[in-house]
Design goal:
It is built from 5 helices and 8 strands; from the N terminus they run H-E-E-H-E-E-H-E-E-E-E-H-H. The chain is of the alpha+beta class. Among the domains are: 110 residues, no CATH class; 41 residues, no CATH class. Helix 1 runs antiparallel to helix 2 and helix 3 runs antiparallel to helix 4.
Length: 255
């Protein structure tokens, strides 16, 4: 390898890693459970008396492979993985891109320059999680209530207009059912009644965001994440660094 772009190298990395894993498991099983693969046996029979009419067939068990051949095959299969690793990381070291945001008016704003691709990947994951688990669940003001814009002396706090409510209390009151006459006294009755006692004045305040403010935040988050994704895609078009290391590593082992 050594040609192509970083995103192409990343695309094959999973397959190469999977192949290495299978080869390691297979080699381990061969060396531990299939030791007979590395031995062979040839057995023949010779009678003491050449004139003996009894003939016995010999036996044989051929060798499947040698440890040296198995190691050579193993190394050949896993070397690609080592070269993919060194090429990916060497390319990652130089793969960078600017984070550019598409503005609402059709222009572009560069918010960060020459960001390494490894950082872009982490930024993308973090911002997506923050948007999903934090900003998406920001509580907003009750739309059925009329809120007054935040006071500059206390940013971020909305309030309602002052509401006045009358407080009443129970009192006893005598009412006349019938007036007095020259024959009968007045007829009265003691009843419970509510009479004004004072006034409650209430103002509600809230530190929540308005639905519009939340929408603007989420819009900015979305455009930032889109900018990071585009930057990652541009960084992943960096030409792969042509470097190999597997032969040197395994050459030391086999020297």
């Amino acid at each position: 390898m050594g040609k192509g772009q970083l995103h192409e190298l990343i695309a094959v990395e999973k397959d190469v890693k999977g192949t290495t894993e299978k080869i390691i498991i297979e080699a381990h099983k061969t060396f531990t459970d299939r030791k007979d693969h590395f031995t062979e046996m040839f057995k023949t029979y010779s009678p003491i008396n050449p004139d003996d009419a009894e003939k016995l067939e010999g036996e044989s068990k051929p060798m499947v492979t040698t440890v040296a051949d198995k190691i050579a095959y193993f190394e050949k299969m896993v070397k690609r993985h080592f070269d993919v690793i060194i090429q990916k990381e060497a390319t990652n070291a130089i793969a960078k891109a600017d984070i550019v945001i598409d503005d609402e008016d059709g222009t572009e704003t560069t918010v960060a320059k020459d960001v390494p691709v490894a950082a872009l990947v982490q930024f993308e994951n973090l911002f997506e999680r923050i948007r999903a688990e934090v900003y998406n669940v920001i509580p907003t003001l009750d739309p059925s209530v009329k809120w007054i814009d935040p006071d500059k002396s206390r940013p971020g706090v909305y309030s309602t207009a002052e509401i006045t409510r009358t407080r009443t209390r129970k009192t006893k009151k005598v009412i006349q059912l019938a007036p007095a006459t020259d024959k009968f006294p007045a007829q009265t009755q003691l009843i419970d009644t509510d009479e004004p006692a004072g006034y409650w004045k209430q103002i509600d305040r809230s530190g929540m965001l308005s639905p519009g403010e939340k929408s603007k935040l989420l819009d900015k988050y979305t455009r930032l994440i889109e900018g990071i994704k585009k930057a990652r895609a541009r960084a992943n078009t960096t030409p792969v660094v042509s470097v190999k290391i597997a032969n040197d590593l395994f050459g030391f082992i086999n020297s």
